[in-house]
Input
Amino acid sequence: MNKRAFTAAGLSIVTALLASCGGTPDPAMIASERQAKSTEILNERKQKGALIMARFIYPGWLGPIRCSGRIRLRKLVDGTPDKVAAPQDLGTAFRWLLPDQAKPAVVKSNFLNGIPDAKDYERSFTPIAPGTYVVTYASCQISDPNGTSTLEAGGDHDGLFSYISALEGASRITIGEGQIVDAGYFRVQGTKTHPVVVGAETSAAEREVMKEVIPGAYPSITFKKFGE
Output
């Protein structure tokens, strides 16, 4: 292949890729995927009897930011965390609207924005057994120009100096039989040695996005916050 032909072929490939990324999606295909993911969410509830999803938020200097994290839950037994049974680890949602972010005119997800799609919601809901739980550990990672920082709260982390104790504040949440719980925004404030959980319900804009992208599952979702 000569240089001109090679260049033309390369341009054709780039053009095709750009067209596939920026082209208009097939509405029927989108609707089909949204319905399929809704059905998957409803079916996943059967694994342990309920589902839960939460968003980890970090109060940055310029406003709240998304924090990719993990929340460890333990059932309450006689008012204290169960130290015998295995904990429930909850990986928090990755892509979602910030509390003050408005719903976009066109709901379209990509790597550069935080707009969730049906796949994001299906991945974010975690099977969980019904019951009342408390948070005993939480961690999240924040990336900035200087690298990645890990924030931790609580001592229930399987390490050498691990200990089990409920975090203060709004660390309790109750999951009912058959519920699909959207637990809203999870935040930890205070100090490393004295962390306090703060909970908040999912914004109206996020709920509108959920209603659009997982229409089959949306009516079955219970919106709560940590502390309830």
Notes: The chain has a mean pLDDT of 87.
